[in-house]
Write a structure and sequence with these properties.
seven-stranded mixed β-sheet; 6 helices; Methylamine Dehydrogenase, Chain H; mainly beta
Length: about 750
C-alpha cells in the first residue's frame, strides 16, 4: 500500500471520528425540543417592544440573590456580556442581524430610568382549591366526588384543556370556551359557548381555581428593524405567552379579570394553591437583544435579568413568573440559560432543565485535542518530539504548522515496517474510540437549575449538571432534601453506538451525593416512576427490563429486574405494591428482529422488590393501534377506590363490537377501553365508542376521562359521553361540542 495513502488513512480516522461524533451529539437534540408553540401568529392586541415616556412601568419584586447568581445592572452590560460570549464561542464578531427597535434607555430601572411607584390592588381572598393528586386521589365537593387532572406531584396542578369542579366542565379548544353543567349527567347541558377574541389560536392549557380560570395561549409582539446595509424596515416578530384570568362565577357571563403578556414561548406551568408559576423562554439576537418584559394591560413590568459565573455555550432568556388567580403579580425574573424544555415542580421547588449545548467551534477544538492527546503519544518518540517542536513554533501559522506535521507523519509511516504500521493504526483507532466515548459522556449532559417557591416568591438556589439526557418530567423527583434524576447516555463511534441508563442523587444544593450508572447497557430509558424511596424504570432494545431500584440511601442499587416481551412508555402506581405500565407489545419477526404489536397494559407486582412479577397483561389490536396514554399521562384515568381504569385507543381493531366473533373485518375505531380490577387482575368493564367509521366530529380534542359521582365522562374530538360506572354499556347522555359562539371582547379593559 502506498505510504501516502496510509498517511491519509490515519488522518481520515481522526476526521471521520470527529464528524460522526459531531452528528451523534447533534442528533440528541430531538430529546430536548421545546413544546410546539406558534411563534409567527399575531393577536389583535399586539404590543410594541419599544417603550415610550408615557409607558407605565410597575415595580417588580426582586429575587433573593444566591451566591454565584449575578444580576445585570444595565442594558449595555447585558449586551456586552452576550457579545463577549459570542466572540468566545465563535472566535469572531459573528454578523447577526443588525438594526431593529430596541427598548429605549428611559424605559425602566435596567436602563437607568426611574421607576414610578404603582400601588397594587389587594388580592381578594380565594377558596383553597381541592388537592389534586394522581387520578387515584378522590376530590370531594358538596355535591359529589370527582377526579381531577392526572398529575405527577400531589397538590401541584398541571394545565390542561379540560377541568372540572365536580359540577361543571370547563373546556378550552381552538379559540373558544365551553362551560357544561355536567352533573347530574342525565340533565347535562351546555351553559355557554363563547370565543375569546383572538386570531389563529388553539387554546389547550388552563387552570381552574374556584370560580377563576387561567387560560394560556401564544401570540407575538411586532417591531421593525433595518438589516445591515439595507434601507427598508422589516417586521420582527417575538413570541409571547398570554395568561388570561377569567371570572366564571356567572357561568353565562364570564368576565376577564386581567391578563399578562409575558415575552417568550410557553414552556410549562404549574399551580400550587392559588399561585400560578409560568416558565417561558425567548431566543436572543446578541447584536440587538430584545429583553423580556411583561405587560398587564397598559402597565409594564421589567423583570430583573441574571446570569451565572459558569458560561453557557449559547443563551436564551428563561423567565419565571408567579401570579395568583386574583390577578396579583408576585415575581417575574429572567435568567440567561440554555434553551429550557422540561421542568419538574414539587410543592417547594421549581427545577428547570435542558440539554447542554456545545460551543460553535467545539468540534474544531475537539479534533485538535484528539490528535495531540491521543494520536501523538502513540507515535515513535522522535516523531512526537518533532511534531511538538512544530506546534510550538510561533513563527508558523496554523496552516503551515499542519502542513509540516502532515509531512512529518508521512515520513514516520514511510520508515515503519508494514506490520508496525498496521499495529499502530489499530492502536490509534481503538484509542480514539475510547477517547470519543469518554468525551461524549462529558459533553452530553443535562443542566439543572433549582428555584425555591415560597407563596409566589422565587429564590434561586443552585445549578448542576449530570451526564446524559432526560426522557420527560417523570425522569425527575424530589424526596425530602434529595433530588433524583434518571438519564440515558449515548456513546457513538465509527464502528457503532451504545446506550446506557443512569440514576443520580443530588443534595439540596444540587451537589452529587450518589449514583448508579450503566444500567442495562445498549438500552435506553422508556419510562420511569419515582415512588418514595423506590424507582421503577423500564428500558428497552429487544425485551422489556422492568427494574426496581432502591433509593433509600445515597447509593442507589438494583433490587430486582423482570424481563418480558414488550415495553412500557408510562408507569403509574395502582397502590403501594402494584405498578401499571402502558406501552406496546412486541414479537420477534421473521428476520430475527423485534416488531411492535398492539397497545399493552401490564400489572406489575412489586411487593417483593427483589422479584417483581407481571401478574396480568392486555394487548389491544395490532401495531397500527395507538393510545394517547403512551405519551400524555393526562389521558389516563386510574382510580383504585372507584375500581376504574379508562384509557383512549385509536386504530384498526378487529372484532371491536363483538368479542365473540373475532373474524370480523378490521374497523377504524377510536374511543375508550374501560377496566376494573380483581386484586391484581384486569377486568374488562366495556368500551365507549367515539368514532366507528360513520359519525365523526372534525373538531380535534385530546382524549380525556374523568368521573363525577358514579358517572364516567369521556371526551374525544368534540364529543362528550356520559356512561354509568357500574354498567359502562349504559350511555346516560351525549353532548357534541361545536365551535360557534359569541365573543368575549378581548380588548375591553379588564375588570379589577
Amino acid at each position: 500500500m502506498n505510504n501516502k495513502i496510509l498517511a491519509g488513512i490515519i488522518i481520515g480516522i481522526i476526521l471521520i471520528g470527529t464528524a460522526s461524533f459531531y452528528f451523534a451529539l447533534n442528533s440528541n437534540s430531538k430529546h430536548s425540543q421545546p413544546l410546539n408553540v406558534a411563534e409567527n401568529t399575531s393577536v389583535k392586541e399586539n404590543a410594541t417592544n419599544q417603550l415610550t415616556e408615557n409607558t407605565p412601568v410597575k415595580e417588580n419584586a426582586t429575587i433573593a440573590e444566591n451566591e454565584g447568581l449575578i444580576k445585570f445592572t444595565s442594558y449595555d452590560e447585558i449586551k456586552d456580556f452576550l457579545k463577549n460570549n459570542q466572540n468566545q464561542q465563535y472566535g469572531f464578531d459573528y454578523p447577526f442581524r443588525r438594526g431593529g427597535v430596541s427598548i429605549s434607555a428611559d424605559g425602566g430601572p435596567m436602563y437607568g430610568g426611574p421607576v414610578p411607584s404603582v400601588s397594587e390592588p389587594s388580592p381578594q381572598p380565594m377558596p383553597t382549591p381541592p388537592p389534586y393528586g394522581g387520578t387515584g386521589d378522590k376530590v370531594t365537593s358538596s355535591d359529589s366526588d370527582f377526579s381531577g387532572t392526572n398529575v405527577q406531584v400531589k397538590n401541584v396542578d398541571e394545565p390542561d384543556y379540560l377541568k372540572t369542579d365536580g359540577k361543571y366542565l370547563y373546556i378550552v379548544n381552538q379559540n373558544w370556551l365551553t362551560i357544561i353543567d355536567a352533573y347530574p349527567a342525565d340533565n347535562a347541558k351546555v351553559v355557554l359557548k363563547i370565543a375569546l377574541d383572538i386570531d389563529q389560536q388553539n387554546l389547550e392549557n388552563m387552570f381552574l381555581n374556584g370560580d377563576k380560570l387561567v387560560i394560556f395561549y401564544s401570540g407575538s409582539s411586532q417591531t421593525y428593524g433595518i438589516a445591515q446595509y439595507d434601507y427598508t424596515p422589516y417586521p420582527i416578530y417575538s413570541p409571547k405567552t398570554i395568561s388570561t384570568i377569567i371570572d366564571v362565577s356567572d357561568k353565562e357571563n364570564p368576565k376577564i379579570v386581567t391578563k399578562y403578556e409575558v415575552d417568550g414561548s410557553f414552556v410549562d406551568s404549574r399551580m400550587i394553591e392559588d399561585i400560578v408559576y409560568l416558565v417561558t423562554n425567548s431566543g436572543i439576537d446578541s447584536a440587538n437583544p430584545m429583553l423580556p418584559r411583561i405587560m398587564e394591560g397598559s402597565d409594564l413590568i421589567l423583570p430583573d435579568v441574571y446570569h451565572f459565573p459558569n458560561p453557557e455555550p449559547s443563551y436564551t432568556f428563561n423567565t419565571g413568573t408567579a401570579f395568583d388567580v386574583s390577578g396579583k403579580l408576585h415575581t417575574s425574573e429572567t435568567f440567561l440559560m440554555g434553551y429550557s424544555n422540561t421542568i419538574y415542580v414539587s410543592e417547594d421547588n421549581l427545577y428547570i432543565t435542558y440539554q447542554k449545548n456545545n460551543p460553535y467551534r467545539y468540534y474544531d477544538t475537539m479534533s485538535k485535542d484528539r490528535f495531540f492527546d491521543v494520536v501523538v503519544p502513540l507515535l515513535p518518540k522522535d516523531a512526537q518530539d518533532k511534531i511538538r517542536d512544530i506546534q510550538n513554533d510561533t513563527s508558523l501559522d496554523a496552516y503551515a504548522k499542519w502542513n509540516q506535521i502532515s509531512n512529518s507523519l508521512q515520513d514516520t509511516y514511510n520508515n515503519l515496517p508494514k506490520d508496525d504500521k498496521e499495529k499502530l493504526f489499530s492502536l490509534i483507532q481503538t484509542s480514539l474510540e475510547e477517547y470519543d466515548a469518554r468525551i461524549q459522556s462529558d459533553t452530553s449532559r443535562t443542566v439543572i437549575h433549582k428555584i425555591a417557591l415560597d407563596k409566589g416568591n422565587l429564590k434561586y438556589v443552585a445549578n448542576s449538571e449530570v451526564p446524559g439526557y432526560l426522557l420527560n418530567q417523570f425522569s425527575m423527583d424530589e424526596s425530602g432534601n434529595r433530588f433524583r434524576i434518571a438519564t440515558t447516555s449515548d456513546s457513538y463511534s465509527r464502528i457503532g453506538s451504545s446506550q446506557s441508563s443512569n440514576v443520580y442523587v443530588l443534595d439540596e444544593n444540587l451537589k452529587p451525593v450518589g449514583g448508579l450508572t450503566k444500567i442495562a447497557p445498549d438500552e435506553r430509558i422508556y419510562s420511569t416512576r419515582f415512588m418514595g424511596d423506590k424507582l421503577y424504570l423500564v428500558t428497552f432494545k429487544q425485551i422489556d427490563p422492568f427494574f426496581v431500584i432502591d433509593l433509600s440511601t445515597d447509593s442507589p442499587k438494583i433490587l430486582g429486574a423482570l424481563k418480558i416481551p414488550g415495553f412500557s412508555n408510562y408507569l403509574q402506581a395502582y397502590d403501594e405494591t402494584h405498578i401499571i405500565g402502558i406501552g406496546k407489545g412486541t414479537k420477534q419477526n421473521e428476520w430475527g428482529g423485534v416488531q411492535t404489536t398492539g397497545v399493552k397494559i401490564s400489572m406489575f407486582d412489586v411487593s417483593n422488590f427483589d422479584n417483581p412479577k407481571e401478574t396480568d397483561s392486555i394487548v389491544i389490536g395490532n401495531n397500527s393501534v395507538d393510545s394517547e396514554a403512551l405519551y400524555n399521562h393526562k389521558s389516563l384515568l386510574l382510580d383504585k377506590q372507584k375500581n376504574v381504569m379508562s384509557f383512549p385507543i385509536k386504530g384498526e381493531i378487529k372484532g371491536i363490537f363483538n368479542d365473540t366473533k373475532p373474524d370480523l373485518q378490521y374497523t377504524q375505531w377510536s374511543g375508550f377501553f374501560v377496566y376494573g380490577f380483581d386484586d391484581d387482575k384486569f377486568v374488562k368493564k366495556g368500551i365507549i365508542s367515539h368514532y366507528s367509521g360513520s359519525t365523526y366530529n372534525s373538531i380535534y380534542m385530546p382524549a380525556r376521562s374523568l368521573y363525577i359521582g358514579d358517572t364516567l365522562y369521556t371526551v374525544m374530538d368534540g364529543s362528550i359521553k356520559m356512561n354509568d360506572l357500574s354498567n359502562i354499556s349504559n350511555e346516560i347522555n351525549h353532548i357534541t361540542i361545536a365551535s360557534t359562539g359569541g365573543l368575549i371582547p378581548y380588548l375591553d379593559k379588564p375588570s379589577k
